[in-house]
Design brief:
2 domains; 6-stranded parallel β-sheet; Rossmann fold; binds adenosine-5-diphosphoribose; SIR2/SIRT2 'Small Domain'
Length: 234
């Protein structure tokens, strides 16, 4: 049981594992998205320059899978926690699906972008809602400026979003909880080391993450099974 006092400020980092029970494959586990593809082939600015058609095929497939997915009890437990903690909870996700929002979480920081948004790869037009699949024979969508429309996703080699806001929340938190993330991708994998000593550090997932050394408490199991009864906020 994770006890949260009236003065605790909680930082939660979620990864692909929290959406696994909703049917969205993780990246590195069995059947993971990256296991049969090289990341650089589909999720990098270089891939986009080389073959935008193949990149849109990949993200169109991910949009289709995510469209059929529903939040699981893990997402719902975090939405309830936000209702009780309000602005004492900071929810940062590496996931690009919208299952936290579908479960009722209101303040969600998507540091790796959002699958159901697109943006222009040339002008500074704001990202816009877009759940379309762009597969042949549909052409690559174009912006009125002539640029190509791309997924609003942070690709490898690009800078994640909202890092200033995230840093402030990390330095402010008294409880840091990572859920369903392998601890292999930076900068998210280093968040726990940044807060260690100043905050309780807790991991929730079925197997040891790569940065397991930095966690003081670990709850081994599936997010959808553990999270509903894990929090006790006084
Ligand atoms: N509940 C909780 N955790 C789970 C579950 C589950 N039901 N099933 C699997 N996991 C855990 C795995 O043990 C693993 O540690 O989820 C983690 C998934 O790890 P990854 O597939 O590496 O996903 P993630 O850590 O989110 O990847 C980080 O890498 O590919 C990039 O941008 C992509 O945001 C992603 C980033």
């Amino acid at each position: 049981m994770i006890r949260i006092s009236p003065t605790d400020r909680v930082f939660i980092l979620t990864g692909a594992g929290i959406s696994a029970e909703s049917g969205i494959p993780t990246f590195r586990g069995v059947g993971g998205l990256w296991r049969n593809r090289r990341v650089e082939e589909v999720a990098s600015a270089e891939a986009w320059q080389r073959d935008p058609r193949m990149v849109w095929d990949f993200y169109s497939m991910r949009r289709r899978v995510a469209t059929t997915a529903k939040p699981n009890p893990g997402h719902e437990a975090l939405a309830r926690l936000e209702q009780s903690l309000q602005d004492r909870l900071f929810l940062c996700t590496q996931n690009v699906d919208d299952l936290h929002e579908q479960a009722g979480s209101v303040r969600v920081v998507h540091m790796h972008g959002e699958l159901f948004k697109s943006r222009c790869d040339r002008c500074d037009r704001a990202p816009f809602d877009d759940s379309a699949a762009y597969e042949p024979p549909r052409p690559i969508p174009r912006c009125h400026c002539g640029g190509k429309i791309r997924p609003h996703i942070c690709w490898f080699g690009e800078i994640p979003y909202d890092l200033d806001k995230i840093a402030t929340a990390l330095d402010d938190c008294t409880v840091f909880i990572a859920i369903g993330t392998s601890g292999l991708v930076q900068p998210a994998a280093s968040f726990v080391a940044r807060v260690r000593g100043a905050a309780r550090t807790i991991y929730v997932g079925p197997e040891e993450p790569a940065n397991t050394f930095a966690f003081t408490d670990c709850y081994w199991g599936k997010a959808g099974e553990l999270l509903p009864n894990l929090f006790h906020s006084a």
